[in-house]
Amino acid sequence: MSAERQPVFVLCAPAPRRPELRDALQALGRVLEADGPERVRQVVRQERPDLVLLHLAGGDDMLALCTELDQALATRVVVIGPSADVGSIRAAMQAGARDYLGEPITPEELQASVARLVQGERRTRRGRVVTVFGTKGGVGKSTLAANLAVVLAERHHQRVALIDLDLEFGCVATLFGTRPSATIVDVCRRSGAFNLGVIEEAMTRSAHSAVEILAGPPTPDLAAFVDGEGKREPDRNYVQEILRVMRGSYDWVVVDTAVDFGEAVITALDEAERVLFVTTPDVPALQNSAKGLDILLERLGYPQEKLQVVLNRGNSGIGLTSDEIAHVLDHPIHFSLPSEGDVAVRAANLGVPLVRLRGRSALARSIARVGASLMENRDRGRVSAIAEVR
Ligand SMILES: Nc1ncnc2c1ncn2[C@@H]1O[C@H](COP(=O)(O)OP(=O)(O)OP(=O)(O)O)[C@@H](O)[C@H]1O
Ligand SMILES: [Mg+2]
User: Fold this and answer.
1) What is the pLDDT of residues 217-256, one digit of tens each?
2) Residues 292, 331: contact at Cβ < 8 Å?
């Protein structure tokens, strides 16, 4: 694969220990230093590092942070601590650490552990996750997610999975004219670890495209089995596990979402390389979108580059220009899709993706441009939004 980015490491250790550890890590990749848990969280969300190294002397809460990184942010952690301290080793492993390195550590030991873990991680991180999100109902999230998946699969010959994480009222399968015989609920109700076979059994194929669909729950009450009170094992993040397995086998995992900040959607946002944030040019949508973007950028700490705003029905405006809309949102508009009700609604009613039904329409061509842009940028490393502290 071309131009894969160099590994990125986050190092959280007491100041006197840092230079030596950093120098050893720098032989393998880029090192970002963090001076405490808050900074680690921020850097992890922004940079999606390959590995986080936490020194137990970095603070009391290092093990809690390790668990959080492992479970909530899908990030691998190596813990560094006192040698031969069986209690610390056990505690680190229980907290989800992938390795425990007892001090003193030689640079070679550190590098061997890190290289092994990064290679394993890379093998399971082949695909890209694109999450289609927005903070207003009916703006076109599902239409974009479904048709983008078709564009990537058929025009770019990619293996594409489409997941419906609008867990209460999702309609992705309907857009493809299929009636799923199994859904994401069947995956989440299984015991034991998920593997691709388990997930593939629950996926639906459509006569109208090569996209493989993991449909949402058939009724809203079943959503609780995926990310709510009905979870078989409450401590597991099923959506994260599913996305991680899928990215190992699909080139692209396209995620459709609901307007909420529940576990499933936040996980899909965290896991994504790219978030397509859909809005429309009407005041209620723009107001909610400005609030939503603020949450993604300020509260969740995503870098600007992770988000691309898609202005749907851009030509049906309220008299605002694109520049004015970008100003209201305080974010550039990356893509504009035209309003074509006869294409979008007709395709939805027939259960055939519009890029297939009306491939030459302006709307289909605009969605194809979004797909082409994702393909062009798929291997580009993230531009750091934060200064590296060296
Ligand atoms: N560019 C467009 N031109 C005309 N109609 C469109 C366009 N995009 C979407 N629509 C129509 O708008 C309606 C809402 O679209 P869609 O279901 O994709 O939105 P959504 O954001 O997923 O909604 P929800 O929040 O309910 O999940 C549908 O009837 C769809 O066919
Ligand atoms: Mg929808």
Assistant:
1) 999 999 999 999 999 999 899 999 999 999 988 889 999 9
2) no
pLDDT in tens, 113-140: 999 888 776 655 578 999 999 999 999 9
Nearest ligand for residue 146 CA: 1
The last residue of one of the domains, among 104, 124, 144, is 124
Task: Say if residue 205 is in the same domain as residue 241.
Answer: yes
The predicted pLDDT at position 379 comes to 60
Among 102, 124, 146, give the residue marking a domain's end: 124
pLDDT at 123: 58
Write down the pTM of the prediction. 0.74
Contacts of residue 19, Cβ cutoff 8 Å, sequence gap at least 6: none
Which residues are within 8 A (CB) of 196 and not within 5 positions of it... i.e. 6 or more apart? 245, 246, 248, 249
Where in the sequence is the domain holding 340, given as residue range(s)?
128-376
CA of 257 to the centre of ligand 2 (A): 7
| 175 and 309 assigned to the same domain | yes
Answer whether residue 363 is part of any domain: yes
Q: Domain check: are 32 and 179 in the same one?
A: no
Give residues with Cβ within 8 angstroms of 153, minimum separation 6: 159, 160, 209, 210, 211
Cα 219 to ligand 2 centre (Å): 15
108 CA → ligand 1 middle, Å: 55
Could you identify the atom of ligand 1 that is nearest to the CA of residue 137?
Answer: 25
Q: Which residues line ligand 1 (CB under 6 A)?
A: 134, 137-143, 166, 259, 312-313, 337, 339-341, 344-345, 348, 363
Smallest CA separation from ligand 1 atom 28, residue: 345
- In this structure, the residue with its CA closest to atom 13 of ligand 1 is 138
The confidence score (pLDDT) of residue 386 equals 26
Q: Radius of gyration (Cα) for the chain, nearest Å?
A: 22
Ligand 1 atom with the smallest distance to the CA of 347 is 31
pLDDT tens for residues 246-290?
Answer: 998 888 999 999 999 999 999 999 999 999 999 999 989 999 999
